[in-house]
Every structure is written in structure tokens, then in C-alpha cells.
Amino acid sequence: MSKFLTKAVAVGAAAVLALGAASCGNNREGEGQTGDAPAKGFAADSLIGVALPSKTSENWVLAGDLFTNGLKEAGFKSDVQYAGASTTVADQQGQISSMVTKGAKVIVIGATDAAQLSTQVKQAKEAGAVVIAYDRLITNTGDLDYYIAFDNFKVGQLQGQALLDGMKAKKATGPWTVELFSGSPDDNNSAVFFNGAMDVLKPLIDKGEVVVGSGQKEIKQTAIQGWKAEGAQQRMDSLLTSTYTGSKTLDGVLSPNDTLARAILTSIKGAGKPTPIVTGQDSEVESVKSIMAGQQYSTINKDTRKLVAETINMVKTLQTGGTPQVNDTETYNNGTKVIPSFLLPPVIVTKANAAEAYANDPKLSPLTK
Amino acid sequence: MSGLQDLKKNLFGGTTSVGRQFGMIFTLVAIILLFEVLTDGLTLTSGNLIAVVSQYSYILILAIGMLMVIVAGHIDLSVGSVAAFVGIVVAKAIQNFDLPWPLGIALGLVVGALIGAWQGFWVAYVGVPAFIVTLAGMLLFRGGNQFIGNADTVPVPEGFRTIGAGYLPEVGPATGYNNLTLLLGLIACLAVAWREWRSRKTRQEMGAEPAPLWISGLRLAVMVGVIIFATLRFAGGRVGTSLPVSGIILIGLVLIYSFYTRNTVSGRRIYAVGGNARAAELSGVKLQRVNFFVMTNMGILAALAGMIFVARSAASGPQDGLSWELDAIAAVFIGGAAVSGGLGTVSGSIVGGLVMALLNNGLQLMGVGVDLVQMIKGLVLLFAVALDVYNKSQGRFSIIDSITRPFRRDEPPAAVPPVESPRQTDKTPAAG
């Protein structure tokens, strides 16, 4: 006879017996408050959830620490979680659900895949939590409340301009030969960076002053899945083999961030080619060292401290029942609605201004001396 | 037999290789209780139970297929990639050709069956080890996912999301609960009662001594108690939520596949092949057919799991399915399957999967980081299987089995009509 059912049921049976089978007659949670606007303020020691991607870059690790300490200082209880390295999306979905279960009042999400969280954002919203997208805009959902980030289009523009400036400084007149790299296609920001850079570079490419050596100018051709260093290194290796074997020289590489920039430089060094102008972003320690050593040309300083501090300010405002300050209510459409955004200005850093730019950064400023 | 032994034996329905599973059930209960205390009662709240079911149903669905593959003596490393591939094919088809979503699901199942048949062909008819075939499949279909999707994230329409993120509708009078979930619970209670009555009757007819009446009564009370508890929990969540649709699909599949692997000739052949392929072949079992079937079936279930995940995520992404095969395989082994094949049950795998799921969930609720969670899960897997290996080397099935050594196999005759079928027919429409 089917022992299965018996067993399956016995699983829970034991549980119930142990619990004294006492749970009947609970009222439905959250009845009548579904879909309402976020409540007017909440207790000052409420739980704030922070879900971040896996620890693949220093920035996220730093952001996590800053959130943990900052929220504690502000008197909140915090739950800061990172996604796992291999099962990022599923982990993050589970973590956000858990935060909702725990009754978090505000959930700050640095999305791993910004298009795959709409179910969890909806769940959070229905439970009455305010959802803030941190650094990466969550798409395909009408339930997102705020977006806070550095102005990423501006980041792209600065990168494009730095690339030009660097190449001009080395070789006064064009045409300059460049290669383009862009970030992970599942990261909403990748396209924003790339478009920002192309905003500067495209007119020159059209005029023929800047030449993309391999001809790979489309974002799909230049994307590096998962922002993986090994992906960038492989692509650069292939480009060097396919395009730069002869006398052709490479003047510059547009790299969307520091991790990729260093991988690109490794690849170029491995091939024994002269170091081109390589851009970057994030001000990672290794890259700042590289810039000071004259290898990588530029990076972007998006001070994670400021961004986290602004996010915590938003949480504080929400706690008192106020409306957080935003400075852009037009640009960031996530496919369903325009998300009120607070954008911070990024700063370009080269060897020339590094000491000044990192003056307030305890970790980076010693490197610039 | 003393009353206590009677109780143990009859309550958990069997005396043989159930030992390990029996142990896992207690592990599961212990984990639930532990986290219920550690999380101040959050573990068993409606919201959390609903979240756990919708978060892990696709892994458990994979575990059902994986159990059959492992019982037949194979392994499937490609399930995650196959799931991701099917997910992107379906999402793209719906996006580019305006395919209605039910057709999209049908398309996904067909693609899954074709992929399964492709792998089954190499395993069964060419004789390439499944490890190699599915390792190749893992690369092939992961690449296929990126090739078709351009490593992009492709959203799916609202209707499609029902299978992964949907709930039963709120109908009928305002009872303060989700009425359809209550109805399912009621049906489950009736089915359990009917089955108990039926089994007593069968034993009487066969001239066997039925279990003492008080045992039947207690067993029934426990089961009904659990069902009522679960029903009220799932029905009592936030308005608009209920037992998730993916959970209903899972329950339907568990019932169907349990019945299939336990009570049908072709289901038992899988065990025969995995236990001793040569002997099975000499007894007239068509090895190739069985192997082909388990691989094809795995393909279909992987496709379903992939679509449920895509539906839950509202989009198909390039990171779908990463390391799902490991979760599914872990669930099956924790649930008592033998690495060498021939042993294991669907219900055991589900229990194994639930152990992992609740462990994960409980640690998450406590705010433990993913790094530690992975380490703990790894150790649980190792110790669960090590315990089994150790106990086998000691010539017994498990510690619990050794405690309850007095009873040996004295099962009732197996010729019981398929008592589960009414439950299936009751549930399947709801699952569709």
C-alpha cells in the first residue's frame, strides 16, 4: 500500500504534535492594507533589509559594511545580505522574501539581475515595505519606490572624455585606434555607461578620428558577462590575436570598470604590447595603485560612503513619515514607470588629481602619496 | 509486539529501508523546530511557508526526476542548463512571435522532451555514460541559452508568471481564509481518511491482521492534524496569497510519480535496472527503454522547473539554472538514495529537498550570510550520506533501523488497488 502518503504526512505530523497543534484560527496577515501607500513613518528601531549582489567587487563589500554600521548608528536594526557567488539570483530572491517575512520596513536592493526581482519587490510592497533600488535600477515592476545611484550616464561620458584626453596627451593628432568594452548585459547600468561613453566618442568615430580596430562597436559585441575579469581577458586576448598582430597599434581601450581594466591590461602585457590608455571605474585599490604606477589611465570615484550615507538619509526620512529628496523624476524609466531618483555626481580620477580626489578616503589616500 | 513498537511501525508505514528516511523526517522536524525557536516563530508563519514553497518548488520538481535517474544508476548534470535553455526559448518565443503563454508552456515541455530524448539516445542506445552525456549537455545548453538570449534578460508576460508566482483566486464567502486552499485541504483530509479505511478493509479481505484500531485512529488523527495545520497556514496568508500554484504543481507531480515508481510495473523496472542491470535484463526488462525513459522524463521535468523559475522571476536571465543540478542531486542523496542506484524514493527525495530548503530559509531568516549557509549545507550533505554509508557498512540500514531491529519485513500484501488515484484526480484539475 502506498506508504508514501503515510510518510509524507507523518513529516508534518510530528511537527504538529511537537508544536501542540496550536495554530488554528489566526487572522489573515495584512488584511485590508494590501497595496496601500507606505505607512506614514515607522518605529525608529525597525528592521531595514539590505540585499546586495555577490562579493565580486570591493565596492559591494565596503557598501555592506557601511550599511551595517550606518544603520546601527541611526538606531535601526539591519539585515545586510550578499547573494552567493554561483546562485546569485535565486539567493537574492530568497533573501528579499526573508526580509519581508521578518517585517523589514525598508528594503534596499542592489540587484544581481535587475529584471528578475519583480515578484519579490511586489511581495515587499504588499507587505508595506518601501523598496529602494541601490545603484542598479530594478526593471519590470511598478512597485519600486525610489532609485539612488551615481549619475551613470555621466560616468560613461567622463570615461569617454578621459579616453580621448589620455590619447591626445600621448599622440597629439588622430586617428586613434581603440577597442570598446562594456559591462554585463544583465546589469541595467552597462548600457547606460556605454551610451554615455558613446555620446562622447560617436561623433569622432563617425568622423574617422577614432577608429575601432576590430570593428566591434555594438554593445552586444563588447559586453562581458557577469563583469567577469576572465571574460574581459579572454576577449582582449582574442582581439589582440585577430586585430593587432601586425604593425597596428592600440591607442586606447574603453573599459567600464576597474576589474575589467586590469584584466585588459594583463592581457595586453601578456602579449608584449605597449600599454594603451585604459579607462576604469570604482576606484578599486589595485587600480589606484595601477594608475599611480602609470599603467591604467583613469578611474571614476563614486564614493560608496556618500551613496550609502544618502541611502541611510532616505531611510531616516521615511522613518519620520516624510518624502525623501529626489533630484531626477524623468530619466529613469524601468519599463513600467518612471522611478523618482536621487543621483550623485561622479568624479573622474587620473594620476594628476588622485591625491586630491581621495584625500578623504582612509584606504586610498596613502596610495596616492 | 509492544504498543510502542506497533505505533512506530504503523505510523510511519513500513519497516524496511525506510529507516534512513525516517531519520530524515526527524531531522526535518528538528530543523523546523530549531529555526522556529531561533527566529522567534517566523519559520512557521504563513508568509514564510508560502515563500519557501514558491522558492524551492522548482528544485523539488528537479529532485523527482533526478531520483529516477539516480535510481536507474545514472546522473544528470545538465538539468540546470536545460532549464535555462528552455526558459530562454520560451521567453523569446513568447516575446518575438506573440505566442499565447499556454502555448509557450507546451512548447517548453516539448523542447524539454526533445532534449531529454537526445540525451536518452546517447545514454541508452549508444551507451555513453550519463555523466559524460549530461556534462556535454551542461555545456551545450548553457551555451545555447547565451546564444539564443544574447546573455540578455527577457521578460515574460503576466499570464505566464502564474505558474511560478501565482496563487489560487479568492472566491466564495469571506471566511478569513483562502477558500480554494481550504477546499484542497478538505479533499486531502477526506482522501487520507478514505485511504486508511480502504487499507484496513483490504487487509481484512486478504486475511491479514489489520493494525490495531487505536493505531489507525492515531495515525489518522496525526495526518489530519498536519493537513489542517498546513491548510490553515497556507490559506491564512496575506489576502491574495494561498498555496502557491507552483506548490500545487509540485504536489500533483509528487503524487503521480510516487504512485508510478511504487505501484506500477514500469516504475519498478527502474529500480530493477539500477539494482542489477544484468539481472534485470535477463528477467526481460528492456534496459534501453528504461534508460531512455528516465532521461527523457528528466528533460521534461527540467523544462518545467526552468519555466516555473522564469515565471517566478518574471524574466529569463543568463544566470538561470546555475548549480541547480547540485541542489537536486543533494536532495536526492540526503533523501536516502544510493549512489550506486536501485535505492531511493520520491518522498525521500522531497524530504531531503525540504531539509535543504528549510535549512537555507532558516539561516536566511537569521541573517546568516551566504558563505556560511553554503558551508553548512555542504556539511549536512556530507554527514547525511556518511551516516548512511557507515550504517550500511555495519550491516544495517540505519541507526533508527537498528533500534527497531525486532521488526523485519512483514509488510501487507502488495496487491492493493491504487488507493492514491482518487487524490490525484481530485488534485490534478486544480494543478492545471
Automatic annotation (TrEMBL), chain A:
InterPro entries documented for this protein: Bact_Solute-Bind_Prot2, Peripla_BP_I, SBP_2_dom
Keywords: Signal, Sugar transport, Transport
Pfam families named in the record: Peripla_BP_4
Signal sequence extent: 1-23
Keyword Signal: yes
Domain of life per record: Bacteria
GO cellular component: outer membrane-bounded periplasmic space
Subcellular location: Cell envelope
Residues of the Periplasmic binding protein domain: 48-321
GO molecular function, one term: carbohydrate binding
UniProt key word Signal: yes
Alphabetical list of SUPFAM superfamilies matching this protein: Periplasmic binding protein-like I
PANTHER family noted in UniProt: D-XYLOSE-BINDING PERIPLASMIC PROTEIN (PTHR30036:SF1)
Protein name per Swiss-Prot or TrEMBL: Putative multiple sugar transport system substrate-binding protein
The organism of origin for this protein: Kribbella sandramycini
UniProtKB/TrEMBL annotation, chain B:
Cellular component annotations (GO), alphabetically ordered: plasma membrane
Localization per Swiss-Prot or TrEMBL: Cell membrane
Major location (coarse): membrane
One MF term in the entry's GO annotations: transmembrane transporter activity
Extent of the signal sequence: none
Membrane topology, record value: Multi-pass membrane protein
One Pfam match: BPD_transp_2
Record field: transmembrane: 21-38, 58-91, 98-116, 122-141, 177-194, 214-235, 242-260, 292-311, 332-359, 365-387
Region Disordered: start-end pairs: 408-432
Entry keyword annotation includes Mitochondrion: no
Domain of life: Bacteria
Keywords: Cell inner membrane, Cell membrane, Membrane, Sugar transport, Transmembrane, Transmembrane helix, Transport
NCBIfam families named in the record: GguB
Its job: Part of the binding-protein-dependent transport system for D-xylose. Probably responsible for the translocation of the substrate across the membrane.
Name by which UniProt lists this protein: Xylose transport system permease protein XylH
The organism of origin for this protein: Kribbella sandramycini
